[in-house]
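One-letter codes give the sequence; the fold follows as tokens. Both lines appear below.
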Amino acid sequence: MGLTKFLLPAVLISVLLPTDAVAATIDVRTAAQLKTALGNAKPGDTIKLADGTYTGNFKTTVSGSSSAPITLTGSAKAVLTAGGGYGLHLNGASHWLVKEITVTGGQKGIMIDSATRVTIDGVTVHGLDMEGVHFRKSSTYGTIKNSTIYDTGNDGRGMGEGVYVGSAGGTSDKSDHVQILDNTIGPDVGGEAIDLKEGTTGGRVAGNTFDGRGLTGANYDDSWIDVKGNNYLIENNTGKNTTNNGFETHTQQSGWGCGTVFRDNHSDLTGATGSGRYAFNITNYNASSCKVTIDRSNTVTGGRGLANPGIPIG
């Protein structure tokens, strides 16, 4: 008797075959377990940290998907502590949600490189030599929200921004459409609370609270936000304690530092002693080639005024 061949529809075969897309919850209690989980995570997985200290540098290069992001979560008592380097590095790791943990120690807190759709939500970042959270190497559509960043820039070089978007020295880093929402940044941040670099475009900075106590003036860190990218919307932020200005724009590369809209921001410049002391110091305004919009909904207390001379308010 010959063998009878049965042909199953391709759809049925795909249902019968095992898949690695089944989401899992991975409970983690040690640094070694965390490193393993970060390396082996699959789309839809949740890595759940128990309260405790996780010592080391933690990195992942695996991505979730748009429909099934990977989640790293815990409480503020789940603390990643680095002795140098990056506390948490998402390197080419897109579609991640990092939620409610603490990152401290090391050179930099959370570094996002070459990744899209990474969300940082409700984290605490502090005690760093340099910046707190950095979207770099054309990391697009990232978000940091509901988070607290303070005590950065402790290596004494006048650096240590709270949130850093892009890279200095050129326009090849297209970390576009980053959103920075409802965070508390400061005090004791060794650079600007937020630095938006040339080459980056189209982000939104909204609902944040800045405390500039600890600004040194080194490397021009004399404001809460420095905008060197294009076409940002900056709205509904509140700042206090600055050495000079509240918000600034600069052209570091030709054609950049333009198109930003500032509205409904509230600046307290009480005690500022710098030469400017404006809520908005716009250094590159040109009505035809480099327009910046300062809406009348912005307010200022103290200082010399809402904007430096020659900048229209409307």
Observations:
- Residues 129-307 form one domain.
- The mean pLDDT is 92.
- The helical segments are 10-16, 31-40.
- The chain is about 5% helix and 35% strand.
